[in-house]
Amino acid sequence: MAMIELGVGLTGAVVGVIAAEFGRARRRGLPAYGWAGLGLVVVAEVMMFRGIEPVAHFFTPIAWTAYILIADAAVLAIRGRSRLANAPGRFAGLAFLSIPLWLTFEIYNLRLQNWAYVGVPKGYAEALVGYAWSFATIWPAIFETADLIEAFGWFRKSRPIELSLRAERILAGAGAVMLVLPVALPRRIGAYLFALVWLGFVLLLDPVNRWKGWPSILGDFRAGRRGRLWALLLSGWVCGWLWEFWNYWATAKWHYIFPMFQQWKIFEMPVPGFFGFPPFAVECFTMYVFAAGVLKWRTEE
């Protein structure tokens, strides 16, 4: 119980900082759909705790849809523009791509067995809707949170850093090795190496994105920009706490079953796992840019 109370306190602190910074930085009131998102979260929480269907089983995607509305509305209130308000078609593409991009990690999990889902609706159609809707919120949540954090104006330009082509090739090669190693080794060993997957796509794809002339962290470094990287890292931290907070009481939820640190949990997540969320957010960026580039989609990035 003490760890749950700690988790609630830390989640509240994270949300409190974001709310306080929004209050400082906003230039206009929160748009109506932001208030609707806040109302939806409250109503969904009450219905979930009372076991009212279908909200109880679909609580996770409902909560995250509401959160995305809140975050986007907050960005609009600060910047005067946002993904949903100014480019709803591209936002829809982001949500659509979020599903197959996350399924990449589900494929790894089939082999490595790091998490499992419980309480999923029994019907095939209902389960499919729940999975697809939930997965469609992952990338939008990361990107909207990063937009909001970057809108706070915390980050300034700094000295450019330019890696050599050889160094970038080494990074890409290291990323490829990190992605192959966990599944190439016996499962009893690979199950301990899922952390490599949370970093591998960053190292592999970000150099490729820069070589293609697409948005990249390495390209940002060359231009003396650090804001996107820091905003993504902090976005992963914020979303990580909210994912675990909302997941803990949900009817349909995930359990972590990887063979480490199970005795040290906050909510369902073993404590060291929280440090995987920041690099995962950067990975979301690199994977999306690569996929959108291959598909020749225009993106907000």
Please, could you describe this protein's structure?
The protein is mainly alpha-helical and 301 residues long. The chain has one domain (2-80, 110-294). 69% of the residues lie in helices and 4% in strands. It is built from 13 helices and 4 strands. The protein has helices at residues 2-25, 32-49, 59-79, 83-86, 88-112, 124-136, 138-151, 165-184, 187-190, 194-211, 217-222, 227-249, 277-294, and strands spanning 115-118, 253-256, 265-266, 269-270. The strands form 2 sheets. The protein has a two-stranded antiparallel ribbon with strand order 1-2. Strands 3-4 form a two-stranded antiparallel sheet. α3 (59-79) packs parallel to α7 and α8 packs antiparallel against α10 (194-211). The longest helix has 25 residues, at 88-112. The chain is globular and about 60 Å long. It starts with a helix and ends in a 7-residue tail after the last helix. The mean pLDDT is 93.
Taking all Cα atoms into account, the compactness measure Rg is: 19 Å
Q: How many helix segments?
A: 13
Widest sheet: strand ordering:
1-2
Mean pLDDT: 93
> How many domain regions?
1
Q: Quote the distance from N terminus to C terminus.
A: 42 Å
What is the N-to-C succession of helices and strands? HHHHHEHHHHHHHEEEH
Major sheet, described briefly? Answer: 2 strands, antiparallel
User: Any idea what the shape is?
Assistant: globular
Tally the beta strands: 4
Low-confidence stretches: none
- Structural class, by secondary structure, is mainly alpha
Helix content: 55-70%
